[in-house]
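Fig. S4 source data, part A: sequence.
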Amino acid sequence: MTHISFLHGAPDRIQAAAQWLRQAWSERRRVLVYVPDAELAARLDRMLWTQPALSFVPHCRAEAALAGETPILLAERLDEPAHEDCLINLSNELPPSFSRFEHMVEIVSTDDADRQPARERFKFYRDRGYVIESRDISGGG
């Protein structure tokens, strides 16, 4: 069964995702980032290229030619994921077929537009018996 981590209290959801992905890359984890909003995907892409200034997190779009050899993939759809290790959900909806992943991370900002849908997803997962870890990352961790 999918293990679900809710990381809540992020001042900026995309910044928190970039930080989490930097840590995942340092551990050489493979991650699929579900980000159906093109503007948010572009913002995350820029952050992974530029922050911090002398750093780079190897990533590409899921449909790119190098997706098979790239550890972190940004996906607008989850039709045919390259792997089923770890999924980050950066949408306000239930990700399609999330249960095929070993681990799913939900990053929730302090913005009410993120928090309310996240509460509904949390309840959905809990009511179906998923193991949920919840951690406040408002302090940056």
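Fig. S4 source data, part B ends here. The two ends are 26 Å apart (CA to CA).
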